[in-house]
Design brief:
242 residues, 10 helices, hpI Integrase, Chain A, 8 strands, single chain, 3-stranded antiparallel sheet
Length: 242
């Protein structure tokens, strides 16, 4: 068994173990317990939504609360369950940041900066609220938000008879709500943010974990040189146009 296999074991209750599973000591007393090992070396590059599609997803929402929620998720990288627990007291207008509780692997609170594009929607919602008021009381749980997102990117909202009452965007790539975190992380890394900044806001235990997932999006020296060249050329054109 390789090191990659022993790092991640997933327990499944099956009558028989397939060729990719290995029995452990617990299986001697519980014969139906098998352990499936996943090789992390084959991890797929995460998919993310384009900026234009994100704006369409947010604009599609029928209420200000839902628009603010989706903008917050796509522009901070925090989890759905964490976003639903936020109150007005967690929003800091001077710095345009929110205080998000920690995760299972990173228990300390996180300070998440809200992108300039998403801030007006969040602040318009939060401004009239009392400090202890939840920001998104209309959203019962994360499954409700995920269903809204699925309706948005897919066929739309249907009634009990299956008729579409609010047509969806019908995007070619219909990614789930959890990919909002991928969208934020990919954009931040491509813009040159340090990996430890992305790691802290995502709530990952270490920068190595963030690199394992998003390492393909960390700019190389060639990317930085090209960006600097484009910026220089743009500045020269701007001065020449005056």
């Amino acid at each position: 068994m390789t090191d990659a296999e022993t790092r991640s074991a997933r327990f499944t209750r099956r009558g028989l173990c397939s060729s990719t599973t290995v029995r452990d000591s617990a299986a001697s007393t519980r014969p139906t317990l098998c352990v499936t090992f996943r090789d992390r070396s084959t991890r797929r590059t995460p998919s993310s939504t384009s900026k234009t599609e994100v704006e369409r997803i947010v604009d599609w929402q029928p209420t200000a609360g839902r628009r603010a929620l989706f903008a917050l998720l796509y522009r901070t990288g925090i989890e759905i369950s964490v976003a639903l627990s936020l109150t007005r007291a967690d929003v800091n207008p001077p710095t345009r940041e929110v205080r998000a509780p920690g995760t299972k692997t990173s228990t300390g609170d996180r300070i998440a900066r809200v992108a300039d594009w998403a801030w007006p929607m969040l602040w318009d919602l939060a401004q009239p609220m009392l400090p202890a008021t939840r920001l998104f009381p209309e959203t019962r749980d994360r499954w409700t938000a995920s269903d809204w997102h699925r309706h948005t990117v897919g066929e739309g909202t249907k009634d009990t008879h299956g008729r579409v009452i609010h047509e969806g965007l019908k995007l070619r790539q219909r990614l789930p709500m959890k990919n909002a975190r991928h969208h934020w992380a990919v954009r931040r890394l491509r813009s040159g943010s340090p990996i430890h900044v992305v790691q802290r806001q995502l709530g990952h235990e270490s920068a190595k974990l963030a690199l394992d997932v998003y390492g393909a999006f960390v700019p190389t020296g060639a990317h930085r040189d090209r960006a600097e060249k484009n910026a220089t050329e743009y500045e020269e054109r701007r001065k020449a146009a005056k």
